């Protein structure tokens, strides 16, 4: 699913208005009606107090139009206009007049009075600012937002939480609505997915307001949101007359004394994701433990006891997956140096592979085309240097990906796969996965898909999605805290099955079945 910029949404608006030959207030009417339907379905006329805080732009207009629907259907509402500017939008004014025609007079707030009382058991509709916010709110508006946040009332944000920018982080974190639920129009917004701004969104849902399908389909976006509909078509079925050679050979290089587990996890994940064969190259100390813990993995031991001193890559290996638990001994660094200068095939670099690259920036130029790097935030910082905020981080990663023609998998709550100027934001996964070794599992999964013939971008996106899905299935049985990387591997198979599950039929469909 595409993630549009604010400008693209405004363009979609205009395109739709022209093509459908409608006035702009029709779009506002649709937006308000969709929100009303959403609320009405859940509230069923319940007499809970609903406070609507409306700005003076189109986001505010949505709120004012919504108030009309709520009033017509007997809800107990109170409408406030947060009067932060004289520049009221045309459609806001149209809807304000419609409200007044119904003898409903909002209370105008201008910062000269105490903020209205809101009880914990009330509902707040936040329609103060939408995607048009372009500077920090005035202090009194920010304080009003803070006041609503501490009220404890259930807060439903229209389009985006007020105070959230589309392209940068807020100056004052207290001056952003902390939304229990965001009803966003047509497409999700990029700040929902970044660590510094996603914290303001508990849950979000999309409402279809009928923006023009041609515009939505043909417009290129800088980001996409990856769910099941995006990954399913990537799947390459396994065929009957095939053998293990068909599904590639992953060479996993890494491990050091005390960290043989990392290579075990990556190797086992690669096999479990479908690679035909996996060979692990590890220091001698890991030979027995690895052979006995995963008998399917072939093991080649280094002459050195505790760390790697040589990498042996042959034509039989289709993919190299490198760095998990590897350490950064001088001789390991030298081996990496020799390897990266001559290897040109498919490559996944994780953990200490990334740390070595960070310490020896001259080696970055030797990365083979479409190498896949899987840094967590600290590794990324070592690789790229510091950044001002999450938005700048994304720009730095994009520039890095373009310069070195590589793919960066930016691990986090919403892992983002970046290739060139584009980012693919993952939808699966959960906080239970913030535990040692889950990154090693991911590296093995990416390598496995590469070995099976998936393109580098597809392998990255598919592995990230499935890794998160396995995590989601695993916590359903284990809970967050008891989640371990080994358990995650146990759920890779189920996550493939989940991909092909058909949705449960709705209750009425079930009844119709014979
Ligand atoms: N296609 C869709 O998705 C549809 C979207 N719709 C809705 O429209 C919303 C976007 O509406 P919007 O453009 O009028 O902007 P909104 O956020 O209401 O702000 C209002 C104005 O405030 C100003 N301003 C900015 N920062 C400020 C500040 N700190 N302090 C004071 N003023 C500030 C700035 O104007 P400026 O003063 O800069 O000229 C800005 O224009 C969108 O989120 C959705 O809810 C639907 O109605 C129809 C279909
Ligand atoms: K809002």
UniProtKB/TrEMBL annotation:
Entry binding sites for K(+): 59, 126, 162
Residues reported in the UniProt entry to bind AMP: 411-415, 439
Domain of life the protein comes from: Bacteria
The keyword Isomerase is assigned to this record: yes
Ligand binding ((6S)-NADPHX): 58-62, 130-136, 159, 262, 325, 376, 440
Any one Gene Ontology molecular-function term assigned to this protein's record: ATP binding
Cofactor remark: Binds 1 potassium ion per subunit.
Cofactor: Mg(2+); K(+)
Subunit description: Homotetramer.
Protein name: Bifunctional NAD(P)H-hydrate repair enzyme
């Amino acid at each position: 699913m595409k993630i549009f910029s604010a400008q693209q949404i405004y363009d979609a608006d205009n395109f739709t208005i022209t093509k459908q030959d409608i006035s702009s207030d029709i779009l506002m009417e649709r937006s308000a009606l969709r929100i009303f339907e959403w609320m009405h379905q859940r509230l069923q006329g319940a007499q809970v107090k609903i406070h609507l805080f409306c700005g003076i732009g189109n986001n505010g207009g949505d709120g004012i139009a919504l108030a009309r629907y709520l009033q017509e259907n007997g809800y107990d509402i109170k409408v406030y206009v947060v009067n932060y500017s004289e520049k009221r939008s045309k459609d806001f004014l149209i809807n304000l007049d419609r409200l007044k025609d119904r003898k409903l007079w909002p209370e105008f707030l201008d910062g000269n009075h105490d903020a209205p009382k809101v009880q914990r058991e009330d509902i707040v509709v936040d329609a103060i600012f939408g995607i048009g916010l372009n500077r920090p709110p005035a202090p009194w508006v920010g304080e009003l937002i803070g006041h609503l946040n501490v009220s404890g009332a259930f807060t439903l944000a229209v389009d985006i939480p007020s105070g959230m920018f589309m392209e940068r982080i807020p100056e004052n974190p207290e001056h952003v609505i902390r939304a229990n639920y965001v009803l966003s129009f047509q497409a999700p917004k990029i700040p929902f997915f970044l660590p510094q701004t996603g914290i303001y969104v508990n849950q979000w849902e999309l409402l279809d307001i009928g923006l023009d399908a041609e515009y939505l389909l043909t417009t290129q976006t800088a980001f996409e949101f990856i769910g099941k509909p995006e990954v399913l078509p990537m799947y390459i079925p396994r065929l009957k007359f095939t053998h293990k050679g068909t599904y590639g050979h992953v060479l996993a290089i890494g491990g050091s004394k005390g960290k043989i587990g990392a290579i075990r996890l990556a190797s086992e994940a690669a096999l479990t994701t479908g690679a035909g064969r996996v060979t692990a190259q590890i220091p001698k100390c890991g030979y027995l433990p690895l052979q006995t813990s995963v008998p399917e993995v072939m093991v080649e031991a280094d002459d050195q006891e505790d760390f790697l001193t040589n990498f042996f890559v042959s034509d039989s290996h289709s993919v190299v997956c490198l760095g998990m638990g590897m350490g950064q001994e001088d001789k390991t660094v030298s081996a990496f140096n020799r390897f990266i200068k001559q290897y040109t095939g498919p490559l996944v670099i994780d953990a200490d592979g990334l740390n070595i690259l960070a310490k020896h920036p001259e080696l970055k130029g030797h990365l083979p085309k479409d190498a896949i790097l899987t840094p967590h935030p600290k590794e990324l910082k070592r690789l790229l240097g510091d950044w001002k905020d999450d938005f700048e981080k994304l720009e730095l990663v994009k520039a890095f990906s373009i310069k070195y023609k590589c793919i960066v998998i930016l691990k986090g709550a919403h892992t983002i796969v970046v290739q060139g100027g584009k980012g693919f934001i993952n939808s699966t996964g959960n906080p239970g996965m913030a535990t040692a070794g889950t990154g090693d599992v991911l590296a093995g999964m990416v390598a496995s898909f590469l070995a099976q013939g998936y393109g580098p971008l597809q392998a990255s996106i598919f592995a990230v999605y499935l890794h998160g899905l396995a995590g989601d299935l695993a916590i359903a049985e284990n809970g967050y805290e008891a989640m371990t990387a080994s358990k995650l591997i146990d759920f890779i198979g189920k996550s493939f099955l989940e991909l092909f599950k058909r949705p449960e039929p709705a209750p009425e469909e079930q009844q119709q079945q014979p």
